[in-house]
Amino acid sequence: MRKYKSPRLCLNLVKIDSKFLNLPKIRTYLKVTEHIAGAKSTLFSFEVLPSLKGRDIQDLFSGVDPLIEFNPSFINVTYHREEFVFKKLSNGLHERRSTRKRPGTVSICAAIKNKYGVDTVPHLICGGFSRDETESALLDMHYLGMNNVLALRGDPVKGESIFVPERDGHAHASTLVKQISEMNNGNYLDDEIVEGIPTDFCIGVAGYPEKHFEAQNLKTDLRHLKEKVDAGAHYIVTQLFFDNQKYFAFVDACRKSGIDVPIIPGIKPITTLKHIQFLPKTFYIDLPEALADELEKCKTSEQAMQVGIEWSIQQVKELISHGVPCIHFYTMGKSDAVRRIVKAAY
Length: 346
Ligand code: FAD
Known about the structure:
Blueprint (H helix, E strand, L loop, with lengths): L6 H15 L10 H6 L5 E6 L8 H12 L5 E4 L5 E6 L5 E6 L5 H12 L2 E7 L5 H13 L4 E5 L20 H12 L17 E6 L10 H13 L4 E6 L3 H13 L6 E5 L7 H9 L5 H8 L4 H21 L4 E5 L4 H11 L1
Parallel strand pairs: 1-2, 1-10, 2-5, 5-6, 6-7, 7-8, 8-9, 9-10
Antiparallel strand pairs: 3-4
The chain binds flavin-adenine dinucleotide (FAD).
The site of flavin-adenine dinucleotide has 22 residues, from strand 5, helix 6, helix 7 and strand 8.
């Protein structure tokens, strides 16, 4: 067995060894708000969905690759809660089983950071999590050096009409934000922890220029958005929209309500004929008349995508000319369409 003669010699050997081992450099994460504060022009960011279970990480990377040359400031990875499926048993009866089709949000964030060196933002939802489980999920991110998180409530479980929180879970995103803020102050749930190490999360939340579908009206929804900011949210990312005037009016209304954090617009191009019905129905947003008229003339998805991309290019150009801090693209598996928009508009 090899013996080291002195601590000094031992240190030298370690130095030499690590050179040959080609150890990776420690990567540090910048917060979304730090990216915005340091920006000289409108930033570019986008969101990807974890691959379906059964595929490999290459599947996800193939959606990131086409957009890397545009220097994204950060990449978000969505969170998908469990779904319930009915499996037929050998006795003919059906059993209700829970399954997660797109797991791996936090590890995918780490893999993206490792491969591309780009900052990532994991989404974290209230649905399916108790407060303790939320704390553990946040600690996983913290241990991996991540200091960005998008805090969301999540939708009702598929097939159910109302959102039901877990036992001891959060009913609204505002209390999730509060829990993260408490951890940023070193306050953990376990009251036996004294002088806990504070985390340092930059917290994003969702905002809805056309109102969240459950809210009674836009004003009430804004009040709840303000609660998230008062609880410690550092910035807002909007739901997708196709009418920039709605975004501008939303920003004005937020400022009048005392919400002063950055509000990042979310953009998604129409890429198939199906989107004409699917997007308004799923996201509770309107397609402006001029866009709807153009789409009505389309016979194929290729034509609809052309119209959709053109529309998004004009939207993005106008948003950039208004000096928005960043534009966040929902890729939804269509990175090539986003690539065409960014290439034309930035
Ligand atoms: P909340 O802020 O809790 O608001 C939900 C509703 O409750 C609103 O109508 C609000 O007005 C109301 N409300 C809030 N507080 C109160 C209160 N104290 N009393 C009464 N009513 C209240 N979903 C996922 O499952 N995974 C994702 O990765 C994901 N990413 C998203 C990213 C963005 C940018 C956006 C815009 C949405 C995303 N979603 C995601 C969807 C989101 O989870 C849903 O829109 C969900 O229905 C609401 O989430 P929220 O965080 O806005 O909820």
